[in-house]
Specification:
Helices cover 46% and strands 18% of the residues. A hairpin with a 4-residue loop joins strand 3 and strand 4. Helix 1 packs across helix 3 and helix 3 packs across helix 4.
Length: 165
């Protein structure tokens, strides 16, 4: 009887350990998407500034209508390009276009698949913008989101509009 109880107890411990490993992997996967998104958006901003920021036309040609040309030019990280379209880490379409007489660009991404935690993580880690709108709440470099304001903004939706020069 003691042997049976020992085997059952050991089995339960093994199952608990497996559950812990699975949960750890899942959390790591969600965290990876946040880090990847922040890295991707930062790279997009850098590439756009280098390719268009100083041109006579500004960002006039930095628009979703020119996606294939911008992909060919290497303006987007490879992991954002799927089937000729630009997507975020969750597979949501990324749209973009010039604003303010072609002196700025707004990137739109996010939505389906993002958890509130992931939304908050992206919001608090993004930089290099002049305006960040998360779920309808606007932030600026002078008033960036902290953990509390990011969580409140993400409760309103998990979409992002990042504007940069």
């Amino acid at each position: 009887m003691d042997r049976v109880l020992g085997v059952v107890g050991a089995g339960i411990l093994v199952l608990l350990a497996l559950v812990a490993v699975v949960l750890s992997i899942e959390k790591g996967f969600h965290t990876h998407k946040v880090e990847q998104t922040v890295q991707d958006i930062s790279q997009v901003i850098t590439n756009a500034r280098q390719g268009f920021g100083q041109s006579a036309n500004g960002y006039a040609n930095y628009a979703s209508a020119n996606t294939s040309s911008l992909i060919s030019a290497g303006d987007f990280p490879d992991d954002m390009v799927r089937g000729g379209a630009i997507v975020d880490a969750w597979g949501n379409s990324v749209t973009f276009g010039p604003t303010q007489n072609n002196s700025e660009v707004t990137l739109n991404f996010g939505g389906a698949g993002l958890t509130s935690d992931q939304c908050s993580g992206v919001a608090t880690k993004l930089s290099g913008y002049i305006s960040l709108v998360v779920g309808g709440t606007a932030f600026t470099p002078a008033n960036p989101p902290d953990d509390a304001t990011a969580a409140q903004a993400c409760a309103g939706g998990t979409t992002f509009a990042v504007t940069f020069q």
